[in-house]
Amino acid sequence: MYGPSADESQYDLFGEPSGHLHTILDEAVNKVLDIVDLSEGIGSSNDLLTEQLAPLGQRAIKHIGSLTAGLTDAGVGVRVAWQAREGTARRSDWSPSGVQRVRLLCEESEFTEAEIIRVTGWLGAASSFRGKVEIRTDSGEDIRASTDEELTGRLDEYFNKRVEANVEVEKVVFAGGRERRLYSVLSLRKLTE
């Protein structure tokens, strides 16, 4: 499989090294392999797995759940070897018990209907490479949120400025009761000081 190269003209205001770019496909495969590796950890808690799964969102969790259901029903595991374009190789083994562990987390995840809130504060971190922002609200809460492609291309306009943001908030509750909120900025407006 091959994927498109990331646009090297994009920059990362989170301070991530921009010279070490991966393709979108490399990032997606690495994320799945992170989940595989965490599911195999003896004694590791499901909290680490949920921290990897939650940001992927409801749709991706549904697809991972379908994959793991098929593997579990067949009673098989998976051995994966992946070589990124820059030459780094990665290998992971996913046992049937690790697959089952991820399947249960995916199937027992419960997403609430998203709500839209309005927040005001300082946009103190932005990554046009990753489509992420961090806003410190007037109440002192730090919100880390994703942005859509159109807004991501204009993040430099809002960086280190006071903003008003419409934010979609979705709550996911995983098996065992672990809860996580997912934030997505729908719109940003600069506020005058």
Walk me through what this model shows.
This protein has helices at residues 24-40, 46-53, 57-74, 96-107, 149-152, and strands spanning 78-83, 89-94, 110-111, 115-127, 132-137, 142-147, 161-173, 179-190. With 193 residues, the protein is of the alpha+beta class. The longest helix is centred in the middle third of the chain and has 18 residues, at 57-74. The N and C termini lie far apart (50 Å).
Provide the residue-averaged pLDDT.
83
Overall outline: globular
The total count of strands amounts to 8
Question: Spans with pLDDT under 50 lasting ≥5 residues?
Answer: 1-21
Helix content: 25-40%
Strand order of the largest sheet: 4-5-6-8-7
- The helix/strand order is HHHEEHEEEEHEE
Number of helices: 5
- Gap between N and C termini, in Å? 50 Å
Radius of gyration: 19 Å
Q: How much strand content do the residues show?
A: 25-35%
For the biggest sheet, the summary is:
5 strands, mixed, barrel
Broad structural category: alpha+beta
List the main descriptive attributes of the protein structure presented here.
single chain, two-stranded antiparallel sheet, about 190 residues, alpha+beta
In short:
The chain is α+β, with helices and mostly antiparallel strands.
Structural topology:
Elements: H1 24-40, H2 46-53, H3 57-74, E1 78-83, E2 89-94, H4 96-107, E3 110-111, E4 115-127, E5 132-137, E6 142-147, H5 149-152, E7 161-173, E8 179-190
Parallel strand pairs: 6-8
Antiparallel strand pairs: 1-2, 3-7, 4-5, 4-7, 5-6, 7-8
Helix pairs in contact: 1-2, 1-4, 3-4
